[in-house]
């Protein structure tokens, strides 16, 4: 894990991603490894792959899920995820739109 962190700090995202992927392949990886790999993938603009990595172990209660879905072009799903997080029963869909800055 330390190796991947050092590679990220050195700006070597591709190499860091390779280390995180190896860790995840070994035993499914820790939540920290999955979150870190997802972050590297997002920095590289690979939103679909980030979504897959981030939700592999479930996404219940994941506060990043709504914006991640919007970045991936899944606006309706993002708004539904936001409704589930807030328990707002559809209110978020009426008041919010996926912001362009999320994409």
Give your account of this protein's structure.
- By secondary structure, the chain is mostly helical.
- The protein has two domains: 1-58, Alpha Horseshoe (Serine Threonine Protein Phosphatase 5, Tetratricopeptide repeat), CATH 1.25.40.10; 59-103, no CATH class.
- Helices cover 67% and strands 0% of the residues.
- It contains seven helices and no strands.
Structural class based on helices, strands and sheet pairing: mainly alpha
* Major sheet description: none
What CATH calls the topology of the largest domain is: Serine Threonine Protein Phosphatase 5, Tetratricopeptide repeat
Share in β-strands = under 5%
Question: Roughly what is the average pLDDT, rounded to an integer?
Answer: 76
**What general form does the structure show?**
elongated
CATH top level of the largest domain?
Mainly Alpha
Outline of this structure?
The chain is mainly α and 103 residues long. 67% of the residues lie in helices and 0% in strands. Helix 1 (2-9) packs antiparallel against helix 2.
Write the layout of secondary structure elements.
Blueprint (H helix, E strand, L loop, with lengths): L1 H8 L3 H15 L3 H13 L3 H9 L9 H7 L3 H12 L4 H5 L8
Features:
Serine Threonine Protein Phosphatase 5, Tetratricopeptide repeat; mainly alpha; 0% strand; single chain; 2 domains; 103 residues
